[in-house]
Protein 1
Amino acid sequence: MPDSPVPPDPPPYFRAHVFVCCNRRPDGHRRGSCAARGSEKLRDYMKVRAKELGLAGVRINQAGCLDRCEFGPALVIYPEGIWYRPETPADIDEILETHLRGGGRVRRLMLTETDVVPKG
Amino acid sequence: MPDSPVPPDPPPYFRAHVFVCCNRRPDGHRRGSCAARGSEKLRDYMKVRAKELGLAGVRINQAGCLDRCEFGPALVIYPEGIWYRPETPADIDEILETHLRGGGRVRRLMLTETDVVPKG
C-alpha cells in the first residue's frame, strides 16, 4: 500500500521575520553584547520605520542572545537567514529599503561564514 | 554587457533557529500573552533539553511578541517557518525529537493559516 501523502507545510505567516539581538551582558564582559553596542535603539528605530514604510508581512522582533556577540549589533532575517550588523539608523534604512522592500542584499553590512565566534 | 553575477548568500549559520515568544502582558489583557500561558518555563526546558540531546546547529532563543498571542504559547522554527503551540514539556520533547532531530512535523501542535488573529 502506498504511504499517505505528506501534507504540505502551511504558507509563511510572515513574508520576512526580523530578529534583532537585544541581549545585554554586564559592562566589560569579554564578548560584549548587542545591547551594549546599541541594538535596542536600532530595534526601536527599525520598528517605527517599518511601520511608516507600510511593509506588508514584515515583522520586527527583539530576541535573546543570537551568539554572534563579537559581530554585533546583530540581526537576522528569516526565512532567508541573512545576518546583518547595522550600526546606525542609516544602516537600518538601507536594510529596510534594499532587503525588506526590494528583496536585495546590503553586502557591506552582511555577516558571512567567516564571521565566526572564537572558541574558548 | 552582462550584469555582474549576484554573489550567493552565505550558508545558514544555524541549521534550525527556534524563537519562543516570551512576551508578557498585564494580567487580564484581552489577548493574553505567551508568558502568561507559561512560555518562559517551556523556553527554559527546551534550552536544557536541546543541549542534552546535543542537537548540532540548533539554537533556541526567546523573542518578543510574535503577534499570535491568542494561539500561544507560540514558537516558530526557521528557516522552515513552522509554528507550534506547545503546552507541556512533553510537547517540547516531541518537537525536539520529531522536528529538530528528525526533520518531520508534529502536526497536532502546529499553527496553520487558519489560526489567524481576530481583527480589531
Protein 2
Amino acid sequence: MTRGFLIGRFQPFHNGHLSMVERIAEDVDELVVGIGSAGDSHTRRNPFTAGERVMMISKALIDVDLVTYVVPIEDLERNSVWVSHVRSMSPDFEIAYSNNPLVIQLFREAGVEVRQSPMFNRDTFEGTQIRERMVADDDWESLVPDAVVSVVSEIDGLERMEMINRTDANGDG
Amino acid sequence: MTRGFLIGRFQPFHNGHLSMVERIAEDVDELVVGIGSAGDSHTRRNPFTAGERVMMISKALIDVDLVTYVVPIEDLERNSVWVSHVRSMSPDFEIAYSNNPLVIQLFREAGVEVRQSPMFNRDTFEGTQIRERMVADDDWESLVPDAVVSVVSEIDGLERMEMINRTDANGDG
Amino acid sequence: MTRGFLIGRFQPFHNGHLSMVERIAEDVDELVVGIGSAGDSHTRRNPFTAGERVMMISKALIDVDLVTYVVPIEDLERNSVWVSHVRSMSPDFEIAYSNNPLVIQLFREAGVEVRQSPMFNRDTFEGTQIRERMVADDDWESLVPDAVVSVVSEIDGLERMEMINRTDANGDG
Amino acid sequence: MTRGFLIGRFQPFHNGHLSMVERIAEDVDELVVGIGSAGDSHTRRNPFTAGERVMMISKALIDVDLVTYVVPIEDLERNSVWVSHVRSMSPDFEIAYSNNPLVIQLFREAGVEVRQSPMFNRDTFEGTQIRERMVADDDWESLVPDAVVSVVSEIDGLERMEMINRTDANGDG
Amino acid sequence: MTRGFLIGRFQPFHNGHLSMVERIAEDVDELVVGIGSAGDSHTRRNPFTAGERVMMISKALIDVDLVTYVVPIEDLERNSVWVSHVRSMSPDFEIAYSNNPLVIQLFREAGVEVRQSPMFNRDTFEGTQIRERMVADDDWESLVPDAVVSVVSEIDGLERMEMINRTDANGDG
Amino acid sequence: MTRGFLIGRFQPFHNGHLSMVERIAEDVDELVVGIGSAGDSHTRRNPFTAGERVMMISKALIDVDLVTYVVPIEDLERNSVWVSHVRSMSPDFEIAYSNNPLVIQLFREAGVEVRQSPMFNRDTFEGTQIRERMVADDDWESLVPDAVVSVVSEIDGLERMEMINRTDANGDG
C-alpha cells in the first residue's frame, strides 16, 4: 500500500489539479490532498474558506478511482517546522507531490521523497488567471470541474470576489 | 439534502462514537466529523495527532452508509469565535450534534440548531477510561472499531502513551 | 492632570470594584479601566466577553464624577512584556492601582508607580463568590451595580453560566 | 435604543472621521468606535499605538452629542472569524458603518446590516495623505481635530514618524 | 566532532544540571544547552526570564572544559513539531540528552538518538525543591553554582519570587 | 562592567558585521548578539535558520577578544512590546547598537541608550547583495568570515537558496 500527499491552496480547485490527481492515481493506492493556507479566506489570493475548498475537492474527486483524504492545513508561518506540521495533520504518506521549489526543498531537507507532479497545462490553468477571469466575468467555468462551479454558485462566490477586489483600490480613509 | 456536524477530540475514536454516527445517519444525508484540538498530541489527554485520528475515523466509517468529511480543527483558544472558526473549516452544515454543554451553548448563541447526540453507553465508552486501559494494558480493543486497533498498532501508540504517562511523575529536574 | 490605571478581569464588575473606582477618583483626574483577559469568555472563570464587560463598566460608572476610558486588553501570555502591552493599549498613565502581587511586581520592575487599591470588603465581593451565587441562583444582584444586573439579563448571562458550569462534569466522551 | 459600530484604523483620527461620526449621530443613540489593527504601531501605515488612538478619538468626540465607546481591536489575521471577534470585543450593535468593501462583505455574510458611511471629502482627508504631510512637515493640522494635534505633540509623534520613514530606505545591513 | 543537546527549563540552573554537563562533556566535543519555555517568566514554576537563565548558565559553565552554546527556545505549544522547532533554533546536534519521557519519546519518533542523562541526586537537586527553599528563605545557595547566586541577587530574584508566590492565594477580586 | 547589545538578522553574518563587533569591543566588556527574526528561514530574505546563524556567529567571533552571548530572538510582530521582548531574552545590557532607525526609535522610547554602530562599508557588505551573489554564484566568500563559508557549505546552503529563489517565479498553480 502506497499513500501520496499533494499540497496546494486550491483557490479554486481546477482542471489542472484534477489532471494531477488522475496521474498520481496511477502511482499510489491512496492520496492525501492537503489544503494549504487553510485559515486564509476573503482575500484576492485566497478567496475561499477551507471548508468551501473541502467541498470543491471532495465533490470533484468523487469519480476518480482513488481513496482520498482531504485535510485543511493552517499556516504556522514557520518554514522550518512546516513538514512536521503537515505530517501531524495528515495520514502517514511515503511520497509528496509538488512542483513548488520551496515545498520540494522543505520535504527534501526532511528526508521525504518528492516527485514533481506530472506536467499540466500551466498557461490555461493557473489559479491566478482563473481568479482574474472570475472577477472579470470571463469564462472560467470551462477550466474547473462542474462541482467547483456549483460550490462557487451556492456560496455567492463571484459576488464575494468582486467585493474583495474593490478593497485595495479603496484606501484606508 | 441535509448535512450534519459532529465535533469531538476522538482520542481515540471508539464504539460509542461509531454508534453516534450510525444514529445520526438516520437524520442526515452527509456528515462532517470535526476533529477538535487538532494541534494537540503526545499528551495524556490527547495522545494522537490529527492525522492519526483522520485515519482512525476514515477507516472506521468505511462501512457506514453515509457521505462523511473528516476535518481537523485546530484550537483558536477563543470561545467567542469558535463557531465561526469551525464553519470556516467545514463544509456548510445545518445541524450540529453534541452532548457537550459548552459546545451546545456556543452553537445556540450563534443561532445554529443543535441536537443532543443520541444516547450511548457512557460508562463503558468514555475516552478517559479507554486511555487508562490502554496505558494499563487492560482490554481496550473490544471498545473501539478494528480500524482503530490497527492504527494504534501501526504507530506504536501504546508505547507512546506509556512514555507520556511517565512524564508528569518525573518532575522538572 | 493625573491619570490612573486599574486592571481587572471584571467577571463581573461588582460593588467592590465600584468602591475602588470611587476611592481612586479622589486621587486622579482621569482613570483607564483595563479589562484583562479580554479574549476569554464562556468559561467558569471568565463567563463574559470583553464587549459585555465594556457595557457593564461603562454603564456602572456613568454617575461617577471621573473621566474614564474602558479598554479591553487581550492576554499575550508573556509576563515579561505585559506592561509594555498594557501601555500600548492604554492612554498614558502615571499611577497603576492593583492589589494583585504579580501585577504589582511587573509594574515595579518596569518602573511604574503602583498603589495598592483602597481596601474593600473582600469577603463579600470576591468575583469567585459572585459567580458561584449566579450559578446557584443565590442572591448576587445586591453585590453588583444595577447596570450589571441589566447587562446580565439582556445577554441571558445566567443561562450561559449554567450551561458552562455543566461542562467539566461531563467528560470528553 | 439603537447602537452603531464604526471600524477604522484611525492613523490618525481626522476631520473626515469626525464628519462621519456626526452624520452617524443622526441615526443612532450610541456608537462604538472600533480601533482596528490595535496591536500595530511604529510603522509607516500604522504609526500610533492603540492607546494613543484611544486618546485622539475620545478627546475629539467630547463635544459630539452621542454616547460613544472606543474599543481597540487587535487583528486575528483570519477574515472568516473577524466579525465574531469584533462582536466579542464590542458592546452589542445593530448597524455597522463602513465604506470598506471587505468589511462590508464580511458583515453581510454574517447577517449584520451595513450602511455605507455618509460621504466625506476623500481627496482631502485620506489617512495616507495626512501621514505623508506629517512626515513632509506640510500642513496637516488643519485636517484633524485639535485634540489630535495635541496628542501627536505630547507623544513626539512627528519625530517618531520621521524615524520610521527612514527605515525602509536603510536596508538590512 | 560530536555535538550534544541538553534541554531544560533551568529554573534555576543548579548543581545537578552542572554535574550533568560535566558528565556529558566526557561524551561530546560541543554541547548546546537549550533553555525551554523561554517565553515564560514571573510565575512560580518559571520565575526567571530566558535572559536571566542565559546569564546563569553561561557564567556557571565558564570553567567547564567544553564548547557550549546557550540557546533560548520559546514554546510552540505543539508537541508534534517540537523537535523541528528545537532543531531550527539550535546548531546541528547528533545526540540529545534527557531524562524526561515526553522529550525522549518526541526525539525518538523523529529518529534522533537520545541518551538518558547521567544520574544525579534527584532528591537534593530538584528544581521544585530549590524554588520552594528560595521562597521560604531556607538554604538554597549551597545547591546551585555561585554564578547563579550572583545573578539571583543582581535581579532581586528572591523578592520577585516572594511576590509571585502571594498571587494565587489572593484570588481575583 | 559594561554590556552592549547588537541586533541583526545576520542573513548571513558578514565582514561588515564582524567589523562592527570589533569596534564595539573597544567600548564594552561583554556583548549580546541578538539574532532577529529567529523563526524565519527558507525565504529569500531569511534563508538560514536561527541555529545555523548561531553557528556562523559563534564560530566567526572565536578570535575576537570579547565575551559574547548569541541569542535567537523570535518576532512577536508587535513593535510596541519589542524592546521588552528583547530584554527578556537577553542578559541585561546598558547600550544598544544599531543603525536601523526603527530599532533606534523603539529603544529610545523605552529609555535605552542607543549608539549608531560604527560605520562600515555599506556598499560592499549589504546582506541583500551578498544573498544575490550567493544565488548568482558570484564571489561572496570574500565578503564573509571563513566560518560562514564553512557553515553554508555544511548545510548545502547554496542549493537551498537556489531552490527558494525559484519559488516566486513559479506561481501558485
